[in-house]
From TrEMBL:
InterPro entries: dUTPase/dCTP_pyrophosphatase, UCP030140
Species, as recorded: Alkaliphilus hydrothermalis
Statement: the UniProt record of this protein carries the keyword tRNA processing: no
Protein name: Dimeric dUTPase (All-alpha-NTP-PPase superfamily)
SUPFAM superfamilies tied to this protein: all-alpha NTP pyrophosphatases (SSF101386)
Superkingdom in the source lineage: Bacteria
Keywords recorded for this protein, A-Z: Membrane, Transmembrane, Transmembrane helix
Amino acid sequence: MNIQELFNIQKILDTKILQEHKLEGEDLVSRKIMALQVELGELANETRCFKYWSKKNPSGKQIILEEYVDCLHFVLSIGLEINFMEVSAEIKMEETTEVDQFLKVFANIADFQRDLSHEMYVTLWGNFILLGAIIGFSWEEINTAYLRKNEINHQRQVEGY
């Protein structure tokens, strides 16, 4: 996966949204952070990893992957918003559970919101990418799903979503 290519693709969508909704020049960082938190919660809900009281299985892999790339759209968009696009595709595997990794990403989002530094963004990025690996996604699956969802997001803008 070429991360710079993903940032470039996201920038095209973000620009379209800004123009369509007349938001040029507005600071959207807080709204993007909140959107990421909401999407991350939706992702956790589909994995059901925290639902110790339930015997119901997680959603299918494609549904979970789509929720993951919804989050990825916002992680990329936040990076673009504050001009932090220098991140690594390397995954530093750790012994952890899905629940612990979700909690770590939620904490990273909160930390980043308080300190909009490049260091905090890189930490958020790395832990988010690790979450995808822990869930079981390959770079190829993420890239393909991101491109597919990006097309849908462009179409949604045309349709007035």
